[in-house]
Amino acid sequence: MNTLAHGAETAVPTGTIAVLVLAAFAGTTYVLAARRRHSENRGWDHRRTVGFLTGLALLLVAARPATSDGFADHMLGHLLIGMFAPLALVLSAPLTLLLRSVPPSVGAAITRLFRSTPARVMTHPIVLLTANIGGLAALYFTGLFGLSERNNLVHSAIHVHFFVVGYLFAWMIAGPDPGPHRPGVRTRLVVLGVAIFGHAVIAQLLYAGWFVAIDAPAAEIRAGGTLMYYWGDIAEILLALALLVTWRPDHRSRAGARRGTRSSSNPLGTMVSRSSTASS
């Protein structure tokens, strides 16, 4: 399945090789950092390492050369790139590992970046919902899908978009990494519910063939809609379970708010100070 490049034959191995190189670099870097952190007093959960490698493996499966040009093959790649791989990578807590591995000055810079206004906008639930559901609607109900089939750059940009949005969405809902702008659990549950509804509606429209702007046989479009409906549900159920597993009530934040302190409201800053202590 070639979910990263279509069209010219030379673009298929080039895209696959690029993903292989990036995956090898990311996997090696993560594993080496995780081994170093595991030797510290706080250690490092090897299940997170397994999650990171699983996410990379799913991306590699999505990037392998195409076995067919069917729409169902495209949908499978979309599910892997936009839902399953991001969730596995998010649960591996790469930001936590990064902050524990870099010098304190670099950690402070990362903290400022994540607390910035652009980061707040990019991770706002409404923005992520619009980019997620709106991106799917634009792809399947406008001429964008046909354009992506003719233009390798557009095709790659679309999948980068879905991966980034999928990662940020999974992180916002259930990421174990700290987030200074992450909404409360009730808001996250509402956002997840809206996303599930939006994906279900788009999948049903694909299955029925309504408003679809895809040049493919009706049977292939129905097969793609079926994949999106059922496997999308599985991914969202896993995301909901991850929310339940990773959520912990922060009693310290409430106590700090009563005392008028700021330390508990800055989880990234707290983590930077801890990483500074660990690295000294």
From TrEMBL:
Principal localisation: membrane
Region described as Disordered: spans on this chain: 254-280
Protein location: Cell membrane
A GO cellular component entry from the record: plasma membrane
Keywords in alphabetical order: Cell membrane, Membrane, Transmembrane, Transmembrane helix
Signal peptide limits: none
Compositional bias of kind Polar residues: 266-280
Transmembrane intervals: 12-33, 49-67, 79-100, 121-141, 153-175, 187-207, 227-247
Membrane topology: Multi-pass membrane protein
Name of the molecule in the record: Cytochrome c oxidase assembly protein
